[in-house]
Amino acid sequence: MSILTIENLGFHYDGVKINVFNGLNYEFEAGKIYAVMGKSGAGKTTLLSLLAGLASPTEGRILLDGKDTANIDKYNLRSKHIGVVFQSYNLLPHLNAFENVLLSMDVSGKKYKDKKDEASEALEKVGIEDDEMKRKILKLSGGQQQRVAIARALSYDPKIILADEPTGNLDGETQEDIMDIFRMLADEGKCIIIVTHSPVVANRADVVYQLVKPAAVKQVKRSREKVKA
Length: 229
Fold this sequence. Notes:
Elements: E1 2-11, E2 21-29, E3 33-38, H1 44-51, E4 59-64, E5 67-68, H2 74-81, E6 82-86, H3 97-108, H4 115-125, H5 130-133, H6 142-154, E7 160-164, H7 172-187, E8 191-195, H8 199-204, E9 207-211, E10 217-222
Parallel strand pairs: 3-8, 3-9, 6-7, 7-8
Antiparallel strand pairs: 1-2, 1-4, 4-5, 9-10
C-alpha cells in the first residue's frame, strides 16, 4: 500500500517557462528503498525538496496517506512525518552527537516518554557507541556524522526518510554500512527515498528511477521485485 503518491507532478522556477520536470506519477510504498538517479539538472534535488515540503509543485500534487501535502502544515510535515538526511550532514558542530539528536527532538514538538533514553536508542540503532555520543561533531568521522544525521532524522519516528546523496562523501566500505542501515530501516517499515549518483546505492535499492530532463521519471530497474506487465 502506498504511503506517498505523486500525481502529474510538475515544477518550474519563477520566471522560467520550461519545467524542471513534467507529469511525474508514482506511488512510494512503506518497507522499500527507492533510488532516484539522473544527470545534473534533471531535477533530483528539486524532487526531494518538493517531497519534503521545502518547495511547492507548480502542477499536480503530492499525497501523504491520501492527503494533499499542500493542505498539511509544512513544519508538521517535516517534524513529524518526513525525516531528511543531507550529504553534508547539516549537524551543529558546537554540539555533540547526543545533543544534535536531542535538539531535533525538542524542535519536533513530539511528546516522548523519556527523551534522553530515546535519543540514545536512536544513536545506538545506527551504530553510534556511548563514547561517540559525547564527542563534538567535528571529532567524528564522516561515516559517524552521517550515522548521527540518520539518528536525528529517526528521532521523531517519521514514516518516510528522504536522503540527498547520503553516501556522496563516504568511502566504499562506509557507503555499504550506511546502506545497511537504510535496509534495516526499510525492513522495519520505513519508506526510504534516496537521491544518488552511486551504482552501489542503486544496486541496494528495491526500485530505481531515472529522471530524464525535462520530461518524466521512468523506472529503469527493480532489484528486489518482479516487474508486472
